[in-house]
Design brief:
Chain lengths: ~110, ~120
């Protein structure tokens, strides 16, 4: 069975500081990887995805993530955060042999302080 | 751009009421999903419909009854709910069958349900 682990339930950071949200997955086969963002009282919005090719993926709002196969990680980063980045961030993985069903991590709340 | 639209956005109901949540997708997808999101809990997949056929039902109580009349519309009928059913209910769609399938989900804004 595959799983997705987001090690930090909450990450507080000051405005304009860099941030990294961690995501690890367990799978013995190749996977597709996703990061979603959820602003208060809204649905989930895709930030970025890794399907194949370059391991560094750039997404919306200045976020990027790096796929590391040997460490089975897909950490999300942003060099300088804004107050408006305060939200819940979900990592998710899908596998071709499980009908591509998305498995979500438990989420990390990013709290940006002025 | 409102690819997946959910109504109502907010709903308050008593335990004896009957209500329905509606979801509509304008993306041409062939699969639709209901998720439940409660405070302090992970996202819970409730139901999956692929090509209008229910393909997954994750031990959801019978007081939740899904309906998928066509590939663009999905309903969640609610009756005799409990206060612990209060949550944000998210609808999503995807291109499940065929080529180009990656598992990527497109979500609606959610329906915030409060059961008194």
């Amino acid at each position: 069975a595959q799983s997705v682990t987001q090690l930090d339930s909450q990450v507080p950071v000051f405005e304009e500081a860099p941030v990294e949200l961690r995501c690890n997955y367990s799978s013995s086969v190749s996977v597709y990887l996703f990061w979603y963002v959820q602003y208060p009282n809204q649905g989930l919005q895709l930030l970025l995805k890794y399907l194949s090719g370059s391991t560094l993926v750039k997404g919306i709002n200045g976020f990027e993530a790096e796929f590391n196969k040997s460490q089975t990680s897909f950490h999300l980063r942003k060099p300088s955060v804004h107050i408006s980045d305060t939200a819940e961030y979900f990592c998710a993985v899908s596998r071709p042999d499980s009908s591509y069903k998305l498995i979500f991590g438990s989420g990390t709340r990013l709290l940006v302080r002025p | 751009e409102t690819g997946v639209t959910q109504t109502p956005r907010h709903l308050v109901m008593g335990m004896t009421n009957k209500k329905s949540l509606k979801c509509e997708q304008h993306l041409g997808h062939n699969a639709m999903y209901w998720y439940k999101q409660s405070a302090k809990k992970p996202l819970e997949l409730m139901f999956v419909y692929s090509l209008e056929e229910r393909v997954e039902n994750n031990s959801v109580p019978s007081r939740f009854s899904p309906e998928c009349p066509n590939s663009s519309h999905l309903f969640l009928h609610l009756h005799t709910l409990q206060p612990e059913d209060s949550a944000l209910y998210l609808c999503a769609s995807s291109q499940m069958a065929g080529t180009g399938n990656t598992g990527e989900l497109f979500f609606g804004e959610g329906s915030r349900l409060t059961v008194l």
